[in-house]
Amino acid sequence: MTPRDSGLLGHDGAWREWTAALESTRMHHGWILAGPKGLGKGMFARAAARALVAEPGVHQPEGAHPDILLLDPLPANDDEEKKRDEGKPYQTKRNISVDQIRRMQSRLVTRPTLGSRRAVIIDPADGLEKASVNALLKSLEEPPAGTYFLLVTHQPGRLLPTVRSRCRILRFPALDAAQVDAVLRREEPAADSATRAAAVAAAAGSPGAALAFVGRDLGPLHGLMQRIMREGDPGFTLRGALSEAIGARPDRDRVLATLDLARATLAEDLASAPRPRQLKLIAAHEAVTRLAGQAPTYNFDPGLLIMEIGGLLASAAVPREAAT
């Protein structure tokens, strides 16, 4: 299986680097798959893991593979676990726990089931608890024979230097507009051309962000964010409308998608803005990025968070004299 077999576009260079490593005599045991959220790094990791464990003449199962261990956030509670088992959307815990790492490590004392190699995918690795990272470090320092780690990360700087130093980094660039549009046409065929165009513009090269834009109806939020960027919001009117547009009780995924949208909206103006405004855009973008990093861990009040986002957008708005 290759990324294209999984419907993943735009990462042929990363796949060539991976297959070249597979064919070498000194395959590195630890890999960090790094790039912005929504590029398909998790899908890539699963295809890469299947290529890693496959051996000539050995039948490979289509579904779950005994030699590919996937660690991702568990359902948030029993009700969410029931939704997962029923194939419905479900909320997850904020972090990958140390217990998940230890259960994985208990599997590593046995030999791989079908061949000589085993893959461990951690998605996302920047969602590990502190104790989880420390436990994982032991396996990265002394990996069992035939075991390879693929750490999917949206913010590699959040990983400990000791983890980064033990891994080879495989970087994933943003996709171009045509590739993002192709994903939208395939996955959201009912979306009209205007919605697709807005989603592509807001996604900043991330197919996942574009799909969230369409699937979570982020168009109204994007329009309000763009107005704040053009007009400012001295009377807090637009920020109030932004709070209404996100909803009274948005789920965590909608909040995170809104943060990603705010970052993309700030980035839209960066290239064409004069230098003084560029500095404001960069400062606001960094602040929203910090909020996005904290949001999966901290229990922010959605209403207060959206007002904070609106304030950051307003701080980088076009100066009034330029807008008039």
UniProtKB/TrEMBL annotation:
Identify this protein by name: DNA polymerase III subunit delta
Fetch the InterPro entries from UniProt.
DNA_Rep/Repair_Clamp_Loader, P-loop_NTPase
Name its species: Novosphingobium anseongense
Q: What is the lineage of its organism?
A: Bacteria, Pseudomonadati, Pseudomonadota, Alphaproteobacteria, Sphingomonadales
List the Gene3D superfamilies.
P-loop containing nucleotide triphosphate hydrolases
